[in-house]
Structure to design on (370 residues):
């Protein structure tokens, strides 16, 4: 029997619950929403109230990308992804399970307004700098830059800058600059349906130096893959940038319960221990003999490391309560064994990719590869 409970973050198992302040988690297939009939479509997704960096009444748009096989099969095969221009946010990913039953495997909200309420960055493009910056300050070229601090730790007497600050890129309206559903010039991108979003972050934004032009491209391929490509370029002064997508996955479907039975494989020999506030200590430690050794080719149920790390945290032996760690991936090696995916290099011309992690739900047989 499968355990049930609130949806949880794929890696750290943090529960995401419905609440009046966060809006209702979307259940697309039970709300009468229809499946797309074109490779690229869009609809109104709400509007900004009087809020932060955008004027009241600014419209929010939700775009949907579908693979050809998804359209041809009526959702029995393929992939369908919805992305909002608010935060360049992945709102839903629809995929069928082994029985052809359609499920949304990421957590998201029913409207754009819900994303403007306090919420844990569901599906957002995080920037200018994802994760924590110690005490909200850093030095670059001999100059110290003070940032907005939005992650206090009263017990530790410190406060850090998290995910770009109080008005990071997750809360901004990105401008859609292009979309396409035909063959592209770059052969690596194949015949993709894609959306390209652009954001300008001014010099001094949240305390960061330099004007930055950032882009986030979301592509659904004929091979039923979702490709996310992010770029950032400073237009004047040197700066720091660390972008990421912050989706929460449940491969059984977002409303199906927890993910403790999901199996994960991460080909990492080392990790970075952290302090009580989640900052890396500077040490690079081996995963050998720890709950963070997730190298098994068969995969390890997430319940195993999460329960072990939670117990160690309660005993004061581990800073993080659950999986909230940085893994140091193994050096890429070419393998003659096609089944050994963690060692294979996925050829992509000048842009070579390597498998970083695999997560599989043994019930639905939906698998996620990074």
């Amino acid at each position: 029997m499968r355990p049930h409970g609130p949806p949880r973050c794929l890696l750290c198992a943090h529960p995401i619950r419905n609440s009046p302040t966060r809006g209702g988690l979307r259940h697309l297939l039970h709300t009468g929403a229809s499946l797309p009939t074109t490779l690229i479509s869009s609809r109104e997704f709400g509007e900004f109230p009087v809020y932060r960096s955008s004027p009241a009444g600014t419209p929010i748009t939700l775009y949907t990308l579908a693979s050809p096989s998804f359209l041809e099969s009526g959702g029995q095969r393929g992939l369908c992804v919805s992305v909002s221009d608010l935060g360049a946010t992945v709102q839903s990913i629809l995929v069928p399970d082994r029985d052809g039953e359609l499920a949304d495997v990421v957590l998201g909200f029913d409207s754009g307004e819900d994303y403007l309420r306090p919420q844990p960055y569901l599906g957002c493009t995080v920037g200018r700098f994802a994760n924590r910056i110690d005490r909200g300050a850093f030095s670059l070229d001999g100059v110290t830059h003070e940032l907005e601090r939005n992650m206090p730790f009263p017990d530790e007497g410190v406060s850090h800058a998290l995910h770009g600050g109080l008005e990071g890129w997750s809360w901004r309206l990105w401008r859609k600059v292009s979309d396409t559903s035909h063959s592209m010039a770059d052969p690596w991108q194949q015949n993709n349906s894609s959306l390209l979003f652009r954001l300008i972050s001014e010099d001094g934004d949240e305390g960061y130096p330099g004007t930055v032009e950032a882009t986030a491209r979301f592509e659904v391929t004929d091979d039923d893959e979702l490709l996310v490509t992010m770029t950032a370029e400073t237009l004047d002064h040197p700066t720091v940038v660390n972008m990421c997508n912050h989706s929460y996955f449940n491969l059984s479907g977002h409303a199906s319960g927890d993910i403790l039975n999901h199996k994960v494989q991460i080909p990492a020999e080392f990790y970075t221990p952290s302090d009580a506030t989640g900052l890396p200590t500077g040490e690079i430690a081996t995963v050998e003999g720890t709950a963070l050794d997730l190298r098994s080719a068969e995969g390890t149920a997430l319940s195993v490391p999460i329960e072990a790390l939670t117990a160690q945290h309660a005993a004061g032996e581990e800073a993080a309560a659950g999986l909230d760690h940085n893994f140091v991936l193994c050096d890429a090696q070419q393998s003659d064994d096609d089944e050994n995916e963690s060692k294979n290099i996925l050829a992509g011309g000048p842009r070579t990719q390597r498998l970083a992690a695999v997560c599989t739900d043994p019930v639905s047989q939906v698998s996620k590869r990074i």
About this structure: The helical segments are 68-73, 112-115, 303-314. The chain has three helices and 25 strands. The longest strand covers residues 193-201.
